Amino acid sequence: MKSNDISINETKYIIESLKQGTRLDGRKLDEIRKPEVVLGDNGYVELGWGQTKVVIKTSSEIVKPFEDRPNEGLLVINNELSPMASIKFDERSVDEVMINRIIEKSIRKSNALDLEGLCIKTGEKVWLIRVDLSIINFDGNLIDSCCFGSIISLIHFKLPNYSLDTNGNIKVYNLDEKPPISLSVLHIPITLSISFFNPLNDEENLKSNNNYEISVFDATMKEELVRDSYLVVSVNSNKELIQLTKLGGIPIDSVELVNLCQRCYAYAEELTELIKTTVKRKEEEEFKRLNLRLLKSVDTR
Amino acid sequence: MLLRTSVLENVDGSAELTNGRTKVLVSVSGPIEPKIKQELPNLASLEIILRPSIGTANTRENLLTDKLRSILSSLIIRHKYPRQLIQVVVQVLSLETDAVVINNFENTVDDLKVFNIEFTDIINCCYFALLDSNIFLYESFIGVSQSVSEDKSIINTPELSDLIHSKSHHLLVFSIVDSKPSKIVYADSKGEFSKQELFEVMDNGFKIAGANFTEFRQLVEKKIEDDFVWKQEA
């Protein structure tokens, strides 16, 4: 059986090495793991964030809109932790609620997806976009990886084309009948979490003016077990701050907070660029494949 | 068919099976400490979690979970692990029916899902995940899927289009003894068929199971070779 506990020795070792500015995996304190993105079929994304692995799948469905918002489509982000990722997720945990709430805040409530564009017929039929996250392996930082994965999946997803006839009946076309439509993603929120460690005692943290607290980007599972507090920031490449969450734990100097946000902007640009190039490359591949198919059909005629 | 084993870090055994558009990932943890209500005095208890590729698990997944439990509990040597828990998590990553565009939104989605198109892949993936986790098994096993079309011909490992135009769909799980299929561990049929047809399907299933298992055997041999780290120095 593989355990998720951490020994006192290991805890001390992690904190001591952080004090000296090194981490177990050799990263710098403010360095994130480089995400590996594999795009599959429509809206299917396999994301590897270090050893944390998430599979994201976006799908669509036609539903009746809510009565108070008759001309808006729906976006549902569905995430459940299963013991596949780690034995500690056996029961519904606080982590799960946290992840869901932060994804909601950073993607749905920030209007990253234009919901009005998903309306087919006011008050009767709208598209429901569903993002299903399956976390298959856990090695820390689920929040960043889930948010990053969800937004790539939304960009990668294409809605099937449809037409309305005079009787109001909808005909949905298969992907090869009529080219599908991309979702209108208005901006790309990038969520980053920063863990804080207090190497000294509580008194030092609260009373002194020295900032000995250590801040670490993109914590691994072991670092998450040791940390004293954490901060989650969502920004986009337009240098806009979308949300900021810090729930208790040790207090942090406010100047430090601004510095951390500045660092996040740099990462947001980097990651946004990564998303754009990956999706573009995949689209070019698809285009080539479809183009070949067209040529083939001409050939047989 | 594409297979990868030991893909996950935090569990004792895992396997990922890709078959056409269907992709299934199974993890096995065990023997682990059970919750008190799960504990059995003389046997290992079996917890099975099945999660669909889209949405949350509902009655369909519950039914599949129950079927899977009946298959696995007869094949795992449970008395080897008394008062312990063996946890099997099945995650369907993608499904052939996911990509199908449906025009009549009322029932068709559910109609398509009535076919247990991914169930054979789940069973076969469980086999590799259990092997990977080194859990004791009585026998090897293999699942085969067949359908009988309108003209009464049997189609081996039918695809979705075959199933839509079929009269009946049959799923058989064979236990394997000495690399040959021996007993039927589980049989599940849907649709309309005669006794004669069912026997034909079983005979035919016996043959495909034998043929498919030689392929499985090669995969297992390769896996053992790859996992064996103490290689003799040249």
Please tell me about this protein's structure:
The complex is a heterodimer of chains A (301) and B (234). Chain A contains 6 helices and 14 strands. With 301 residues, chain A is an alpha+beta fold. In chain A, the strands form 4 sheets. In chain A, strands 1, 2, 3, 4, 5 and 6 form a 6-stranded mixed sheet that branches. In chain A, strands 12-11-13-14 form a 4-stranded antiparallel sheet. Chain A has one domain: Ribosomal Protein S5, domain 2 (2-Layer Sandwich). Chain A is elongated. Chain B has 234 residues and is α+β, with helices and mostly antiparallel strands. Chain B has 2 domains: 1-137, GHMP Kinase, N-terminal domain (Ribosomal Protein S5, domain 2); 139-226, Ribosomal Protein S5, domain 2 (2-Layer Sandwich), CATH 3.30.230. Chain B contains 5 helices and 9 strands; from the N terminus they run ββββαβααββαββα. Chain B has helices at residues 59-75, 108-114, 119-132, 160-164, 195-227; strands at residues 2-5, 13-19, 22-32, 45-51, 85-94, 140-149, 154-156, 166-177, 180-191. In chain B, strands 1-2-3-5-4 form a 5-stranded mixed sheet, covered by helices on one side. The longest helix of chain B has 33 residues, at 195-227. The radius of gyration of chain B is 18 Å and the shape is globular. The model of chain B has no long low-confidence stretch (mean pLDDT 88). The A-B interface holds A 1-2, 4, 40-42, 44, 51, 53, 55, 57, 59, 61-62, 78, 80, 82-87, 130, 132, 134, 136-139, 160, 170-175 and B 8-12, 14, 21, 25, 27, 29-33, 49, 51, 53-56, 87, 89, 91, 93-94, 98-99, 101-103, 105.
Poorly predicted runs of 5 or more residues of chain B: none
Give the helix level of chain A as a range of percent. 25-40%
- How many DSSP E strands of chain A? 14
Judging by the overall fold, what is the CATH architecture of the largest domain in chain B? 2-Layer Sandwich
Mean pLDDT of chain A: 88
Organism (chain A): Candida tenuis (strain ATCC 10573 / BCRC 21748 / CBS 615 / JCM 9827 / NBRC 10315 / NRRL Y-1498 / VKM Y-70) (Yeast)
Protein name (chain A): Ribosomal protein S5 domain 2-like protein
Keywords (chain A): Cytoplasm, Nucleus, Ribonucleoprotein, Ribosomal protein, RNA-binding
GO cellular component, one term (chain A): nucleolus
